[in-house]
Amino acid sequence: MKADAFPPELARRTSPVTEWLGMRILWHDDATKTTRFSFAPTPESRNITGNVQGGILVAMLDNAMGFNSFVSLGMANQQTTIDIQTQFLEPVPLGPVEVEAKLVKGGRTLVFLEASLFTKDGTLAARATSTMKIRPMPKG
């Protein structure tokens, strides 16, 4: 499913952090429960070496996994991160990055996810796994 195929109400469900990170949906594959995103980190996200700070990368991975869970489970649940394990493999220079997130296993109240972050040249720079608690969206 291409990004423009998502319902319009989904486009309105953004948060300030999502906008600040420059998150955009590239595509979603419902069969594999995988979603690909692009992010556009700002100059303020750099660390002292000029690369994107690790905590910002974790926020990108967490946002991608949370949104993937939301879309993969039919956009009917909200999710809260219980834990996130991150491995930083390469420095990430300032510039566009992409994150691919996948729902590995879902249950009634917990989901298990994984994500990979790639630099603009396609280098795998970080990986994460996460457990999230899900519950129905509040009415109204």
Explain what the structure shows:
The protein is of the alpha+beta class and 140 residues long. The protein has one domain: Hotdog Thioesterase (Thiol Ester Dehydrase, Chain A). It is 21% helix and 40% strand. The chain is built from three helices and six strands, in the order H-H-E-E-H-E-E-E-E. It has helices at 8-11, 16-21, 54-72; strands spanning 24-29, 34-39, 77-88, 97-106, 110-118, 124-136. A six-stranded antiparallel β-sheet has the order 1-2-4-5-6-3, covered by helices on one side. The radius of gyration is 15 Å and the shape is globular.
Q: Per DSSP, what share of the residues sits in E-state strands of 2 or more residues?
A: 35-45%
How large is the count of helical segments?
3
The best one-word shape is: globular
Task: Please give the domain count.
Answer: 1
